[in-house]
# Entry
Amino acid sequence: MPEKDKEGKNFHVNQPQESELFFLKGSNELDWGMKNRLARIFSPEDGRTIMLAIDHGYFQGPTTGLERIDINIMPLVPQADTLMCTRGILRSVVPPSLTKPVVIRASGGPSILKELSDEQIAMDMEDCIRLGVCATAIQVFIGGEYESRSVINMTKLVDAGLRYGIPTMAVTAVGREMERNAKYFRLAVRMCAELGAHYVKTYYVDEGFDTVTASCPVPIVIAGGKKRPERDALEMAYRALQEGAAGVDMGRNIFQADNPVAMMQAVRAVVHGGEKPDKAFELYKSLKGK
Ligand code: 5RP
# Structure
């Protein structure tokens, strides 16, 4: 027989229950599960994230730096907030003891040998749930040959995710023929957000990036793009954050750096520590020298 408990008396009748606004741009009206997953990706402290992107193999195979995820990448993960990868790598290499949030690459199809915009949804929502992911990622090819289909695929993934509280990150792809200026990215990210993406990964542009973030109603994270000198990559991350980005989803500029562990820490100093590029580069050099 359970012991009979005394009835509570302390109801704080004069104190209204607090309800906070959710910290992420454009996300206040989402359901609890969605917000909770987003709050694992983006730090509630500063609204920022460092996603480590290692999904490149899904269309380009074992590119430089990703030949051995177990050896080259796993040591970087402790300094990342979020891991972005494919389900194949997650199941085969990433230890299930990982407690960091995972954003799963859920689109695919063509390799670098074919028309890249021909991507499809390549993963079932049921498997995303089974893997406990915090968001899905899908490429959207605005201006690409299969533009429309890639946009509709994104909306299908958004709908599937909404059923279970799993957010969708749209990734604006830039093919060879696509422009890379603020006008293009304003169009691309806005389309993704209008059609339901919960946040958008896009590229930084030197001119007018603040207009890209300002006109996008949901958070933006930047891709690193092709490998550039470490100081330049840190400067790009710094400027993107100053101009309204909510973080980075960086791959090659981290794992192809001379010293990826040091680069990861330097990026962390910029994103969460607010460090300026010169200081962050000094940190990189000092860590690299160790
Ligand atoms: C393709 C992708 C990548 O696979 C990757 O995530 C890009 O990261 P980075 O440009 O920083 O290497 O999203 O568009």
